[in-house]
Design a protein that fits this description.
This protein is α/β, with parallel strands linked by helices. The chain has 8 helices and 6 strands.
Length: about 200
């Protein structure tokens, strides 16, 4: 990996058909969630093209190759040992989060977030009747930080889950490794499951 990706010229990006590039006037530079402006990696283009040539467009069932590929990547990148059979495919992070909460949680379980947060977090918990509680980030001028006292208070009050986005959405804040370790310690102390 070279560490840098080519960036498409704005004129070329505006030729795309997605809502991001069709919905706004030319003087607006849209920056929505989860839509990259980098070119698609050549191996992905080749794999999708080959699937199209074979008319391989049916519903995707079990896909053990994905689990094997991810397990290998996780081992090389982070030295994590992942059971390939534990990997599941979902349509997006929202569906994955809802299904994890539905599987591990029960009606009324408390879910902690640190606002400001991605607004969809609130919808995900409503759909499965969980209770959202907040431990807002502390704001000092233009800087934000974690309110560990508020976080511990919510964890101690019986929270079952904690949803964190890192980098933080919408602030773009990248939490320090020491902060993440402190969160993990609190979660372990109070038996809170972290979804990140």
């Amino acid at each position: 990996m070279s560490g840098s990706l080519p960036i498409e010229p704005l004129g070329k990006l505006r030729q795309r058909k997605s809502t991001k590039w069709r919905e706004y006037d030319a003087d607006v530079l849209p920056l929505p969630v989860a839509e990259m402006d980098y070119p698609i990696a050549e191996p992905i283009i080749e794999a999708v093209t080959e699937m199209m040539r074979r008319s391989d467009t049916g519903y995707l069932g079990k896909f053990p190759e994905l689990g094997e590929a991810f397990a290998g990547f996780a081992l090389r990148r982070w030295n994590w040992r992942v059971n390939p059979e534990s990997i599941r495919i979902t349509t997006d992070v929202g569906v994955a989060t809802i299904e994890i909460l539905r599987t591990l949680g029960s009606t009324g379980d408390r879910v902690v977030v640190m606002p400001p947060v991605y607004p969809a977090f609130y919808n995900w918990t409503k759909e499965i009747h969980l209770t959202m509680v907040e431990a807002p980030l502390l704001k000092d001028g233009v800087n934000y930080s974690i309110d560990f006292a508020a976080l511990e208070r919510e964890f101690a009050a019986g929270a079952k889950f904690f949803i964190i986005s890192n980098p933080h959405n919408p602030l773009g804040l990248i939490f320090a490794p020491t902060d993440l370790k402190s969160i993990a310690s609190l979660a372990e102390k109070y038996n809170v499951t972290i979804l990140s």
